[in-house]
Amino acid sequence: MTGLVIPLNEAAAAPEAANEQPAGNIAQLVALVRDDMERVNREILSRARSNVDLIPEIAGHLIDSGGKRLRPMLTLAAAQMCGYAGDHHITLATSVEFMHTATLLHDDVVDDSDMRRGRKSARMVWGNEASVLVGDFLLGQAFRMMVSTGSLEALEVLSDAASVIAEGEVLQLSTANNLETTEDEYLEVIRSKTAALFAAAAQVGPIIAGQDKSVVSAFRCYGSNLGLAFQLIDDALDYGGSSAKLGKNTGDDFREGKVTLPVVLAYRRGSDDDRAFWKSSLGRAGDEALERATSLLDRYDALADTVARARHYGEMARDALAPLPAGEHKQALLEAIAFCTARAH
Hints:
71% of the residues lie in helices and 1% in strands. It has helices spanning 27-47, 54-63, 70-81, 88-111, 122-126, 128-148, 152-175, 183-208, 213-240, 243-246, 252-255, 261-269, 272-281, 287-299, 302-321, 328-342; strands at 115-116, 119-120. The protein has 345 residues and is mainly α. It is built from 16 helices and two strands. The chain has a single domain, classed as Farnesyl Diphosphate Synthase (Orthogonal Bundle), CATH 1.10.600. A two-stranded antiparallel ribbon has the order 1-2. Helix 1 (27-47) packs across helix 3, helix 3 (70-81) packs antiparallel against helix 16 and helix 7 runs antiparallel to helix 8 (183-208). A hairpin with a 2-residue loop joins strand 1 (115-116) and strand 2.
């Protein structure tokens, strides 16, 4: 398995003034956690090893394909910000990345996805069974690492997140192709599937640093709302973005029959004819139908309103950190909010 590479193309100069609004990059966050991320990368390589050759081969296919590593960077930055001086943040950040990678392997099987991060998904190369089982292996390794830290509270947070993510996956199955899904129901899906791991990643840092409950709660709230913003922007980009930004084919959500927030809004705001189109085409039609779907999303401001909601959650994430002391780590975490929401441009 080849070495890991963290893309640093976003790493332009950080804002000149400490209070300047960042313009959609995570340069400061990347710089602050660079040394620790190198250690995390080495740990990933070590923990992905197995005497079963197919395991590191499949895991490496996805791990080496890039990604911002945003979730483990949140763990590292939060631990640093809280003054943690040990090594357990490296182990927990690696656990977080393994949990995320496992969910991607499982998601691609459930969704019949052909692409992941600009490459063929693992299921397309090795099949569904191998992808699921390697995902299970990574989850097992993640839990072994959590236990090794000796922090029962961190273990509880991450294990709870794993359960919530699984519940979110099952909940999403019940909303697939269900155009009567409400906005609240959809938000519950992404709060489980996406926001739960962001929240856990952010709060285990202050936990191992021995911070009090108010600080841990602030980081949890920050991570959860950041995760919601991140996913809602992804939902909008699937119809109005590019494959390069998404790491998958644009329109995949439509082709796979996923009822995401833009569809929920457009369906409810549309005419009877519009709703008939969604019922007959979602998950069943090709590029021509996708063009009409995108046109309807534009007509009813569904994409714009999805982005607006994402920015609302971004502001909630910003407010969650407001009581915490100013400094370069706090600024970097605020920068991450701008990065997540600016992807819509």
